């Protein structure tokens, strides 16, 4: 087992499946089974989920919402997704706890690094919602921050593509995939692995990130075992 403690970032859009909006129960159940598989193997799991399948603050601002209120609405969307995932995990026999960066008892417990680590050591999946708890920061940045705080071995970014490419593989069929790449190279090439704030935070704190396709069942366990199923983004060696 290559990693003992991980932070898994899931996009809100990934929960939609083929629906176009909201939460696909089958996709959610598939994710829960993959997560339980690695937790059963002894991996301590922390999770951050986006809210783009319900509401995205930046898009709301473009439509006339106040940016701060729009981002707060996005934070609430992440809580809905976190509750859905915790329910799906419990349905397959995996204990989970939802932690919120803004006070929201009894919906979730207040987030702290120590509570998250305590839950993971007890074998529970710690689902950390509300991003950073502040507007103007994406859930990518929230994921980077939480990965560093909980002292994860790696931050995993589960997406619908199987790694980092020279260009968007869904738009450019000639795009080539990297097996590994440094943060400096990501920034230099302008690759959209994460937003610049999240990328800089991971680079400064030497937090590696692994980008892979979470929608292919079994990929999460393979990645934890050390198989090459995506792209490793690492600090310059």
Structural class: alpha/beta
Straight-line N-to-C gap: 23 Å
Assign a percent range to the helix content. 25-40%
Main sheet strand line-up:
4-3-5-2-1-6-10-11-9
The pLDDT mean sits at: 92
Plain-language structure description:
Helix 1 (25-40) packs parallel to helix 8. Helix content is 38%, strand content 20%. The protein has eight helices and eleven strands. The strands form two sheets. Strands 4-3-5-2-1-6-10-11-9 form a nine-stranded mixed beta sheet, sandwiched between helices. Strands 7-8 form a two-stranded antiparallel ribbon. The two termini are 23 Å apart. The longest helix is centred in the middle third of the chain and has 25 residues, at 67-91. The model has no long low-confidence stretch (mean pLDDT 92). It has helices at residues 25-40, 57-62, 67-91, 113-121, 139-149, 183-189, 196-204, 219-225; strands at residues 5-10, 44-49, 96-100, 109-110, 125-129, 154-159, 164-165, 177-178, 180-182, 209-213, 230-234. The chain is α/β, with parallel strands linked by helices and 237 residues long.
Keywords:
globular; alpha/beta; single chain; about 240 residues; 8 helices; two-stranded antiparallel sheet; 11 strands
Give the topology, please:
Blueprint: E1 5-10, H1 25-40, E2 44-49, H2 57-62, H3 67-91, E3 96-100, E4 109-110, H4 113-121, E5 125-129, H5 139-149, E6 154-159, E7 164-165, E8 177-178, E9 180-182, H6 183-189, H7 196-204, E10 209-213, H8 219-225, E11 230-234
Parallel strand pairs: 1-2, 1-6, 2-5, 3-4, 3-5, 6-10, 9-11
Antiparallel strand pairs: 7-8, 10-11
Helix pairs in contact: 1-3, 1-8, 5-7
């Amino acid at each position: 087992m290559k990693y003992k403690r991980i932070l898994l970032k899931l996009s809100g859009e990934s929960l939609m499946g083929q629906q176009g909006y909201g939460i696909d129960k089958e996709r959610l159940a598939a994710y829960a089974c993959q997560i339980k598989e690695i937790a059963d193997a002894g991996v301590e799991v922390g999770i951050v989920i986006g809210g783009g399948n319900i509401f995205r603050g930046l898009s709301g601002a473009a439509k006339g919402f106040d940016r701060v209120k729009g981002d707060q609405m996005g934070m609430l969307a992440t809580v809905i997704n976190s509750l859905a995932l915790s329910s799906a995990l419990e349905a397959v026999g995996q204990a989970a706890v939802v932690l919120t960066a803004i006070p929201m008892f009894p919906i979730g417990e207040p987030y702290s690094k120590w509570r998250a680590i305590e839950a993971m050591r007890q074998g529970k999946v710690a689902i950390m919602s509300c991003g950073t708890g502040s507007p103007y920061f994406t859930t990518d940045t929230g994921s980077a921050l939480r990965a560093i705080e909980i002292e994860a071995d790696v931050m995993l970014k589960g997406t619908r593509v199987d790694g980092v490419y020279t260009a968007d593989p869904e738009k450019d069929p000639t795009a080539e995939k990297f097996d590994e790449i440094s943060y400096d190279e990501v920034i230099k090439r302008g690759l959209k692995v994460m937003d610049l704030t999240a990328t800089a935070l991971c680079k400064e704190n030497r937090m590696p990130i692994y980008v892979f396709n979470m929608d292919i069942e079994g990929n999460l366990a393979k990645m934890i075992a050390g198989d090459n199923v995506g792209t490793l983004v690492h600090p310059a060696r």
